[in-house]
Amino acid sequence: MGLFACENTLEEYNPSGLTSANVYTTPEGFETLVNAAYSYQRWWYGKEEGYNIAETGTDIWTSGAGEVYRDLTQYLNLQGSNTALTNEWREFYAAINLCNGGINRIDEAGLSATLRLVREGELRFLRAFYYWHIVETWGGVHFTTTETNGIVTTANKTPVETFYKQIFEDLQIAANNLPATQPQYGRVTKGAAQAFLARMYLTRGMNKEALEMAKAVLEGNYGYQLEANYADLWKMSNLKSKEVIYTVDYAANLALNDLANSTFNPYGHSRGSNNAHLLFLMKYDDRPGMTRDITNGRPFNRYMPTRFLLDLFSADDARYEGSFMEVWYANSNTLPTGIAKGDTAVYCTKKEIPDNVEASKKYQTYDRSDIYLADGTVKDNLRYPTLSKFMDPSRASLNEAQSARDVFVIRLAEVYLIAAEAAMQLGDLAAAAEYVNKVRTRAAKPGKTAAMQIKPADVTLDFILDERARELAGEQLRWFDLKRTGKLVERVKKHAPDNAINIQEHHTLRPIPQTQLDAVVNKSEFNQNAGYQ
């Protein structure tokens, strides 16, 4: 066989005869392209890779005992071999290529004039969306607006400004083209394009434009409104909340999501669907009186809050109880003496409990000094207050890793905070305080609204970052927030001692995947980001 192989040239054979040229030139075929362009969002939103890149390694999260990407969370020899970064690079550039192909081919798709505008708006939004993740994560790396066909062995280094010029152009077209509502849930709308554009303006320090665009969303009569109760945001029965401006949609039928399957979805994700419910849970199921169940979740024990994050919430702020759980109730058939099913079995709290009080309890307690050392470093990375936002008690079984929970990418509360930050940067502290107080009024416990209000003099960049942590913790924004404000290294060193040991200035960019560097032939032009090997 070897001899014959040497003498014969391998020829590709396409038994279906289908090509992009004859599929994407029909309305039905073009719809498959647009739908596929959306699907790549699922590689980041709701996935461990995306949470590690976007949330950990910041001032508010550090490694739990089950952490697998400590190089991202604690900057321990972070290099281009990191598989989370490699996966996201691969999938985002595949998404970019699809968006490029769709935008450049749309005139040949046979769409009605009205539908053509909408589909181009969606693809423009998605290209901007993916390019934002790429340029903020890796900096001025490869950029193109042309569809790639066949094997390409070179890559370019493009200035960050070029990325953002295209991002702004795409989002402005999207905002002009898209309707206020879409017939299919999860598709991008005019309000979503404007909200993301406001985020982009803020990212680039274009504060006047950011404020104007945030106001366009807040005053646009889109029907968005803050939930009256913060905790209601996270109920599985409330996934289509009016507070949500843009979401990555996961189907209730898990088979329709993105779990890899050798027959039907060979290019899917190894875990599939939304996995956030696994990642922030403490190890509870080996405690006396406790066993793993659906209600309390499957504890992967990946990430735990820094002490700083827990201390950000005042006693008047309902977002703490709306975001974290501290009590686990006995559910095992084997129970400690004096504890019945349904009684408290484990209590993990950010508070300090006197030793004599702890000793008097029949249940196990883990208080502030049990979880953290005096300097805020972690003492116990197995037991801690657990982020409960993403838990899913509707899963079919206690070991089910997939959740049908949608991922809220942009919420109305974030738009208020964008407006506040932009107003502050423009010197209007009164307006900034007013926008912040919209969010804090909803966050107040009953009877505590007045206590939760801030004054114009309270508004600083650090205060806004604190407020964003209280409101948006875990929502795949924190690393970008700290980078955008130039505060990543400063705040990690100040507030996250376990993450601070190895962090350096070059960590405001991630390393380019080594697989990419190995694949290109123009290695002198396309090389690794500074600070990495």
TrEMBL record:
Claim: NAD is one of the keywords in the record: no
Key words of the record: Cell outer membrane, Membrane, Signal
Subcellular compartments: Cell outer membrane
Gene Ontology CC, one term: cell outer membrane
Coiled coil: none
Domain SusD-like N-terminal: 81-202
Keyword presence, Heme: no
Gene3D superfamilies on file: 1.25.40.390
Annotated signal sequence range: none
Domain RagB/SusD: residue ranges: 273-532
Similarity field: Belongs to the SusD family.
The protein, known as: RagB/SusD domain protein
